C-alpha cells in the first residue's frame, strides 16, 4: 500500500537545514560562474535527444508525445543546452558561456540535482578544469581531481585487438593476463612523473593522446590530481580529455571536451546531492 505522504524511491526532498545548505551551495557556485562570464539557462524537463547522451538507454524514462515521437525526461543537460543556444536561440544571443541548476532523471524514479556549465565553441579543457578547481577551493573541499583521455582506451583496444568492454568495465585482471609490459606500466600511471615515463615506452599510436593528457594536466592548478589514462567513462559525447572529481565512493563532478552538431565545446556538471553529503561529513 502506498500512502499519500510517501514519495517515490530515488526522488529528492529538501527541508530545513538541508534546503538551506543546498541554497547556500548553489548560490556560492553561481556567483563564481557569473564572475567568470557565465549566464543562466533552464532547459525543458522533456527532451527528444537524450539517447545521444546516455550510454545505457535503459536508464531513460521514456514516453511518447502527441505525434507519437519518443520523448525522455532529461537525464543529461549538455547536448540540449548546446542545441537550444546554437539552433533555437541563435538569433537572440551570441553568448557562449552558460550555466544551469536543475535536476536530471533516470529510470525508474531517480532524481539528482546538478549545477553545470557549458562553454560553447571553446576547446581548452584546462580552462574548465581550473574553473572547477576554483569552485572546490571556494567551498573549502579538496577531493581528488582525476584526469583522463577517452581516446586512450579506444586506441589500446585497437592496438591489442581486445574488446573495448574490458576497458569500459575496468577488468584489470584481464588486462594483466595479456602480459604486455607497456600496458602494465600504463596501468600504474597516477601522476605527471609516471605519465612522462610511460610515454617513452608505449607504441607510437598512443603517444599523441598521452602527450595531450600530459599537457593539459600540467596546466591545471590544483594540489590533489590523479592521472588515470585507462579510465573509460559512461557519457557518450566526451571525445578527448575529460575528468571527474571523486571523494571515496562519491562522484562530485564530471566534465570534459565534446562535439555537438560539429561544434567543439566543453563543460562540467557538479552533483549537488553528493556535494552536500561531503560537506555534511
Topology:
Blueprint: H1 16-35, E1 39-40, E2 46-47, E3 62-64, E4 70-73, H2 78-88, E5 97-106, E6 110-120, H3 125-138, E7 144-149, H4 151-160, H5 164-168, H6 172-176, H7 181-187, H8 192-199, H9 204-218, E8 225-227, E9 238-247, E10 250-260, E11 263-271, H10 272-280
Parallel strand pairs: 1-5, 7-8
Antiparallel strand pairs: 2-4, 3-4, 5-6, 6-11, 7-9, 9-10, 10-11
Helix pairs in contact: 1-3, 4-9, 8-9
Please, could you describe this protein's structure?
Helix 1 packs across helix 3 and helix 4 packs antiparallel against helix 9. Strands 1-5-6-11-10-9-7-8 form an 8-stranded mixed sheet. It has a 3-stranded antiparallel sheet with strand order 2-4-3, with no helix packed on it. The protein has 10 helices and 11 strands. The chain has a domain of 159 residues: Bira Bifunctional Protein, Domain 2 (BirA Bifunctional Protein, domain 2). The longest helix is centred in the N-terminal third of the chain and has 20 residues. This is ATP phosphoribosyltransferase HisG(S)Z, hetero-octameric short form, regulatory subunit. It holds the Pfam family tRNA-synt_His. Keywords: Amino-acid biosynthesis, Glycosyltransferase, Histidine biosynthesis, Transferase.
Outline of this structure?
37% of the residues lie in helices and 25% in strands.
How much is the average pLDDT?
92
Spell out the helices and strands N to C: HEEEEHEEHEHHHHHHEEEEH
Any guess at the CATH architecture of one domain?
2-Layer Sandwich
CATH homology superfamily of one domain? Bira Bifunctional Protein, Domain 2
Q: What percent of residues adopt helix (DSSP H or I)?
A: 25-40%
The Cα radius of gyration reads: 20 Å
Structural class: alpha+beta
How much β-strand is present in the residues?
A: 25-35%
Major sheet strand order: 1-5-6-11-10-9-7-8
Count of alpha and pi helical runs? 10
Main pleated-sheet profile:
8 strands, mixed
Q: Could you give the distance between the termini?
A: 35 Å
CATH fold title of one domain: BirA Bifunctional Protein, domain 2
CATH class category name of one domain? Alpha Beta
Count every beta strand, where a strand is a DSSP E run of 2 or more residues: 11
Low-confidence stretches: none
EC number: 2.4.2.17
InterPro entries: aa-tRNA-synth_II/BPL/LPL (IPR045864), HisRS-like_core (IPR041715), HisRS/HisZ (IPR004516)
Pfam family, one: tRNA-synt_His
GO cellular component, one term: cytoplasm
Amino acid at each position: 500500500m502506498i500512502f499519500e505522504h510517501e514519495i517515490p524511491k530515488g526522488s529528492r526532498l529538501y527541508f530545513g537545514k538541508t534546503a538551506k545548505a543546498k541554497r547556500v551551495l548553489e548560490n556560492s557556485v553561481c556567483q563564481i560562474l557569473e564572475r567568470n562570464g557565465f549566464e543562466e539557462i533552464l532547459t525543458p524537463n522533456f527532451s527528444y535527444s537524450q539517447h545521444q547522451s546516455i550510454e545505457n538507454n535503459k536508464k531513460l524514462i521514456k514516453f511518447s508525445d502527441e505525434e507519437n515521437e519518443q520523448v525522455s525526461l532529461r537525464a543529461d543537460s549538455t547536448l540540449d543546452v548546446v542545441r537550444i543556444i546554437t539552433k533555437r536561440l541563435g538569433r537572440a544571443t551570441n553568448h557562449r558561456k552558460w550555466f544551469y541548476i536543475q535536476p536530471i532523471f533516470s529510470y525508474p524514479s531517480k532524481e539528482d540535482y546538478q549545477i553545470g556549465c557549458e562553454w560553447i565553441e571553446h576547446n581548452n579543457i584546462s580552462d574548465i578544469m581550473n574553473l572547477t578547481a576554483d569552485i572546490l577551493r571556494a567551498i573549502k573541499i579538496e577531493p581528488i581531481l582525476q584526469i583522463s583521455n577517452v581516446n586512450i582506451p579506444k586506441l589500446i583496444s585497437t592496438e591489442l585487438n581486445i574488446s573495448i568492454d574490458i576497458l569500459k568495465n575496468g577488468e584489470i585482471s584481464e588486462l594483466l593476463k595479456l602480459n604486455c609490459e607497456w600496458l602494465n606500466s600504463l596501468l600504474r600511471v597516477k601522476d605527471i612523473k609516471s605519465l612522462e615515463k610511460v610515454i617513452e615506452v608505449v607504441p607510437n599510436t598512443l603517444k599523441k593522446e598521452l602527450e595531450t593528457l600530459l599537457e593539459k594536466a600540467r596546466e591545471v592548478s590544483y594540489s590533489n590530481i590523479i592521472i588515470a589514462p585507462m579510465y573509460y567513462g559512461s557519457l557518450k559525447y566526451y571525445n578527448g580529455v575529460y575528468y571527474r572529481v571523486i571523494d571515496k565512493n562519491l562522484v562530485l563532478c564530471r566534465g570534459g571536451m565534446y562535439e555537438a552538431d560539429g561544434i567543439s565545446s566543453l563543460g562540467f556538471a557538479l552533483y549537488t546531492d553528493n556535494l552536500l553529503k561531503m560537506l555534511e561529513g
